[in-house]
Automatic annotation (TrEMBL):
One GO MF term: hydrolase activity, acting on carbon-nitrogen (but not peptide) bonds, in linear amides
A Pfam family hit: PIG-L
Gene3D superfamilies in the record: LmbE-like
Protein name per the record: PIG-L family deacetylase
Biological source species: Deinococcus psychrotolerans
Length: 329
């Protein structure tokens, strides 16, 4: 048997140590230095954020995909209801573009367009179960049925002409139980339907995706939903789901830890902490369990949102100056 040279063993040992420390950093393993550093940084960053006043009244959550509402605001939405308010959720897409979901669900490497359409229906049903677990009435839920991973080209390139989803092969809303089935995938139709939901709900507060979000569907939804909200004079807050590489840290379920943003401030605005109770976390966990397709693929990402608080970024007042320290960031 051929033995490895000592130098090669040293390189392998060094690589193993680096991988172990990296895993500790990502997962927050307290028993290793990098894990303790991650936890310390998260606690310090969260403690520096202002605590937000509770929301009340009629709150509309704009969700690009099924699960965003539960991850970003599962406790907050319960809190609104517990305080006598009303919560509504509008799902812009049906999550029918995540092929790894379809592969995991079908247990097959190759998936076709029919599989993706079935995935869209399944994720809509998961969203119904999740929002019910959070206590949101079923008649407060709206599905628009636009294509996952298609919001940006729809809005920027196909505002008037129908967009065909490469995942499902359709260019119109194919799902029963949606707000306007059969309508074309155009930016104009997305504007029209979302405006009609706003008109029907008449929200006091809109929770929209942040333009900082790393997912293009979220960034497009940020523009569309915030523009409509500001036109109507509705109070507006932003939330975050895809905050960059490995956010949120640490991965996995850490209910005893706070949630901290990847950057505390953005364009002169500071993220706020919204405290979550033990009871609200338990119901959030049940809602996350409803998203079985997502848990098959990204479980540690999903569980990382079960924390002591959630995060909201207040929209700036019109014409408010940006502090000089944040200019150019």
């Amino acid at each position: 048997m051929r033995l490895y040279r000592p130098r090669k063993w040293k390189r392998l040992a060094a690589a193993a140590v680096i991988l172990l420390l990296l895993a500790a950093f990502i997962n927050g393993w307290y028993w290793l230095p990098t894990g303790r550093l991650t936890v310390h940084q998260v606690k310090a960053a969260a403690a520096a954020l202002p605590i937000m006043e509770p929301l009340s009244g009629r709150v509309l959550f704009v969700s690009p995909h099924p699960d965003d509402e539960t991850l970003a605001a599962g406790g907050l939405l319960q809190d609104v209801i517990e305080r006598g308010g009303q919560v509504y959720v509008v799902f812009l897409t049906s999550g029918d573009g995540f092929e790894w979901d379809a592969r995991a669900t079908n247990r097959e490497v190759n998936v076709d367009r029919a599989d993706m359409l079935r995935l869209g229906l399944r994720r809509m049903n998961e969203a119904r179960a999740a929002t019910a677990a959070l206590g949101i009435p079923k008649d407060h839920i709206f599905f628009l049925g636009f294509p996952d991973q298609g919001l940006t080209p729809i809005y920027l390139q196909n505002y008037l002409s129908p967009y065909t989803s490469p995942h499902t092969g359709v260019n119109r809303v194919p799902y029963a139980g949606t707000f306007a089935p059969g309508k074309p995938y155009t930016g104009k139709e997305l504007d029209r339907q979302l405006a009609a939901v706003y008109d029907q709900v008449k929200p006091d507060t809109v929770l929209a995706p942040s333009a900082q979000d790393g997912h293009p569907d979220h960034r497009t939804a940020a523009y569309v939903s915030s523009r409509l909200a500001t036109q109507r004079g509705e109070k507006l807050y932003f939330y975050l789901v895809h905050g960059g590489l490995e956010w949120p840290l640490p991965k996995g379920k850490h209910e005893e830890l706070p949630l901290a943003p990847p950057r505390p401030t953005w364009q002169g605005l500071k993220w706020n902490r919204y405290p979550v109770t033990d009871h609200q976390r338990k119901r959030q966990i049940e809602a996350i369990k409803a998203y079985k397709t997502q848990l098959m693929v990204v479980p540690r990402f999903m569980w990382a949102f079960v924390r002591q608080n959630e995060l909201l970024l207040p929209a700036p007042a019109e014409g408010a100056p940006i502090p000089p320290a944040d200019l150019g960031k």
